[in-house]
Amino acid sequence: MPFVVYNSLSKSKEPFRSLEPGVVRMYNCGPTVYNRPHVGNYRAFLFADTLRRWLEYSGYRVEQVMNITDVGHLTDDADDGEDKLEKQARKEKLDPWQISRKVAEQFFADLRALGVRPAKVYPKASEHIAEMVEIIEGLIAKGHAYAVGGDVYFDVKSFPRYGKLSGNRVEDLEAGSRIAVREEKRNPEDFALWKSDPAHIMKWATRFGPDGFPGWHIECSAMARKHLGDRLDIHTGGEDNIFPHHECEIAQSESFTGQPFATFWMHSKFLQVDGGKMSKSLGNTYTLDDVSARGYTPRQLRFALIRGHYRAPLNFTWDAMKDAASSLENLDDLVVRLRRISNGEGAASDPNAGAEAVAAARAEFEQHLNDDLNVAPALAPLFGLRTKALEGAFGSVAAKHALEFVGRANEVLGVIAVEEQSLDARIDALIQERQAARKSKDFRRADEIRKQLDAEGIVLEDTPKGVVWKRR
Ligand code: AMP
Ligand code: ZN
């Protein structure tokens, strides 16, 4: 059964095919690093991770690139407003480079805590200025872009397919336009590729002028091309990226290369709070620390964020977290039980009893994930296996096969505690490292380890016999 995905470009489900057999080139719009990403952002990033894991499960090698936007993303998402990083830098009395370094480090630590498989590269926009300039110059040479003063704009009327992703047609945009018309633009909808601003802190001298910085959209076109080539199989982002960000990426990339940019565009829906978007500007965001302060681990959060369908809005509530945590406990328990049964404890007399249920569970799991990554119903067969295990329906050999299947399924889900032994060993090693750090008076490291363990739900207790730990 082929993997079928909903393509935002055709607005329909299509069988997935990669340009090169066996390899998938995927670009994910990453965070704008002015503030630690919130759990809503992680919904988008965990969708990308689950997609990548499913493709790998299905036998593809995935070349995954997720960018770091550290310049050029303005507060209104289009051509106006302030640079988000510079604004934050002023607030914190730091320079924007310090902000981006600090937030990117937090982002990578969060990704590790959430069990995200690392992408091939996390390119930073500020380190790809030459690649952007190359595309902008090419676009000017081909008549798709024009320079005025120190700014360069993309001429949307030069690309007749503008609007093919979002459905926004230039004429409609013009009619309903409330965009402040800049006199230098040929059409009000033309968007900036490069902007000049002597007051900007993160700025570069180019042939367009002495002090300029890139537009947000050109960054992704340039980084995708540099790390994956002219054509991509999949491009992802949150639903708000469709317009203007991805529409503009398509216009730039396709005008420059003369080829289709991404074959499949996939967009995840927002994580909501009280029916509205979770967003920094609304002040209703939570970070991983907020989640852990409520007693939940990143693993439980990961489960809460991936278990709904990515194209359905998801409401973030503490009740939903509680529900996810207890549901996940059942999946952990499934593994413990299957391990026992496969060792003969409580096994049915026929070693192969229940083997058919294992094969059926696997087929059902794969069928749902092949249907546009439908995680929610794909979990049902796992819970079904637990019911069977509780009923004593498995023989030892079938339980071993079930355990293998759960391990495979967890390659995609990345949430179940399948390797209890090695997990414990890793925790023991961290505790030993913490003891050593304390001995050598490296209290910063010791504290860091305690925090990391705490985030994973491990509580340490000092006893006369030494440090012991338990799961919260
Ligand atoms: P940003 O850091 O604003 O550039 O956003 C990074 C990614 O998070 C983008 O793909 C956004 O579409 C996505 N995103 C932002 N807010 C939410 C939300 N509440 N739920 C899901 N994804 C979001
Ligand atoms: Zn992007």
3D architecture notes:
The chain is an alpha/beta fold. Helix content is 46%, strand content 16%. It is built from 15 helices and 16 strands. The protein has helices at residues 39-57, 84-92, 96-113, 129-141, 170-175, 216-228, 242-257, 288-293, 298-306, 318-342, 355-370, 375-390, 396-413, 420-439, 443-455, and strands at residues 4-7, 12-15, 23-28, 61-66, 145-148, 151-154, 191-196, 204-206, 209-214, 232-238, 262-268, 271-273, 276-277, 314-315, 458-463, 466-471. A five-stranded antiparallel β-sheet has the order 5-6-7-9-8. Strands 4-3-10-11 form a four-stranded parallel β-sheet, sandwiched between helices. A three-stranded mixed β-sheet has the order 13-12-14, with helices on one face. A hairpin with a 4-residue loop joins strand 1 and strand 2. Helix 1 packs across helix 13, helix 10 (318-342) packs antiparallel against helix 13 (396-413) and helix 11 packs parallel to helix 13. The chain is globular and about 80 Å long. The two termini are 41 Å apart. Bound molecules: adenosine monophosphate and zinc ion. Adenosine monophosphate (AMP) is lined by residues 29, 31-32, 40-41, 43-44, 69, 237-238, 240-241, 270-271, 277-279.
